[in-house]
Amino acid sequence: MASSDRFDLSGDWGQVFSGAALHHGTAMQSMAVDPVTGDIYIAQLQSGVEGPTGSRALGNFCINRVDPWTGVRSEWMHLNGFGHGYQIGAQHINGRTHVWTEAGPIVDEYGTHVTRVPFSPKRTIEMTTTEKEFSTPFRPTLAEYPGALAYSCAPTVDPIHHRVTIRFKLKRPVAGGGTEDLGWFYGQYPIDPVSGNAGSNLIRWAQVPPKEDPRVAHMYGVGYQGFASNGDHLYIYTGDMRPEDNVHITVGTWPPENKGRLVDIVKQHITAVPTLERREPEGLAVAKVGTEAQLLFGFSGNNENPRAATLCSYSTATSQGGVRVYADWANLALNGVTAQGGVPPQGRLVEVADGLLLQLRGSFTCGLTSDTLVAKLPPQLVPRATVRASVPRNMYYGHGVCQAVVTPAGELQIHGPTETNKVTWVDLDSFSAAWR
According to the model, what pLDDT value does residue 397 have? Predict the structure, then answer.
């Protein structure tokens, strides 16, 4: 995939999963994807957020490992004294996931350094431990601003181009006491894909334009929700929960020769998953999918604790002969029926001539005598409304087809069987229906 590729933020979005329960009841803050296993890592503050001894003030957060197909949390770990978890990254090193994150000391609830931590299920890692279980914390600097110190530092990883990008605020001491706030910056460094070590040579840096710049005015006065980098492009996620409906992803190009500024800035209003109860934007990340990439963006989607996580995506995949694979073949989870030949039926999403289609394939044997739930679809294939298609079945007195129905709950149902018109097998290869 070329570094010149931008995600088409005006195109179709896909849903990775919805309603994922995390280890704590707090909202998700950010996420990252292991480029080898595909596992998704989600950061959230630990329970007991408020007060001087709460997790927010102390910089205590949790990292959840979530299955990308089911949205089920499999493991978790705690990082105490590291920061807010407002942005993380992931690498796969020597067969193990390592998470890039903020690091202490904590100032105003956020980390002042970044580090890399091996994911250790059910472990609690203390920032103050004498036995360092994480890489030496790093604090970014810019030669153009001598004497300035970085605060609220957080990293993200570009898994395609092997780079770590750090967001930070610069403050410089002034005569007579106090500090001068110089604004928010992004700096990018190379990382070794084998060792995971970050180089000290700054590839590029950029400062967010001031609020007077009409290209970014929408980013001020609203919640900052995450950032991601992919080659020459930097993506910034902003917005608040409904009813404001001010959720945007803003993308800018920052070629190395244009140090200090973003160019070709474009904003996109994000309208994904409009039916979420809360729809609070949280988290942005780039994931490697074969030779292509996905831009993942998240929402904390309900009002009451526990706050569940919903993830959506854009893809760089382009159409082949007018067809673009939006979500590749994935197995269905069968319920009370048997896959023919031991091969489970599958589903995928494809874009054809600006339409998004749900396609199914495979067959199963059964003994259905009424409308029956026969399988569950993986979250990324679940439609927004009920879709249906006629599919072949065993011939019985002139009846050779039945209705395959997919619901917004992700259920595949077979309609049409009766006690006197039993369905003994179904073939799904002809199933193709408008997904939305």
Answer: 87
